[in-house]
Amino acid sequence: MTDIDASADPAGRSARRVRLVELGVPALAALADGDLAAAGEAAGAELGPYFLGETWWWRLRQSQLQDDPHRAGWLAHAAVDAEADGPSAAVGFASFHGPPDDHGMVEIGYAVAPEFRRRGYARAIVAALIVRAATAPEVTTVRAAISPDNPASLAVIAGFGFEHVGQQWEKADGLEYLYERPVVLSPGRSGT
Questions:
Q1: What are 10-28's pLDDT values in tens digits?
Q2: Which contacts qualify for 104-108: CB closer than 8 Å, 24 or more apart?
């Protein structure tokens, strides 16, 4: 498993830091089967009940990773508070929808467990995803697709230099606004 430590928030505004702990096939299979103990052991992090809310998603990610091992590092991560004392308890999860496409774009996804919301973890997760994207030289653009009815996520990305570039209709999620930012901001831009 690969851990990414986002010690530097690209926008410089997150008070929290998270480590992204990659969820490999054993952890994803255990989550898909509803076995938190086995998933946590495989991941090396304490995964709370929130991780069982979307077992279909874990099954999808498991299948994608088994079908194409080159997707490793891009599909699913537990977000762990990098500064917490004690066991590595996950505060949420983070992902890319897949590896970079032919244009160098990756799309991010993230969620924070209810008991950890409104504490800066979403910003920390987005920062960690941007840092992870920047480790891959083929990535040029980071995208976020967000429902216009999700003001919390819209506020989270607002300080990271994302610009509104359009919209799309997703069968499962409905209308989504599309936001993109370069993986590295041009000189003189702070991302705020």
A1: 444 557 899 999 999 999 9
A2: 104/138, 104/139, 104/140, 104/141, 105/139, 105/140, 105/141, 105/142, 105/143, 105/180, 106/74, 106/133, 106/139, 106/141, 106/142, 106/143, 107/142, 107/143, 107/144, 107/145, 108/133, 108/142, 108/143, 108/144
Tell me which residue has tokens 């590092």. Answer: 73
Residue type at 185? Answer: L
pTM: 0.86
CB burial of 63-75 (b: ≥16 within 10 Å; e: otherwise) equals ebbeeeeebebbb
pLDDT in tens, 60-109: 999 999 999 999 999 999 999 988 766 688 999 999 999 999 999 999 99
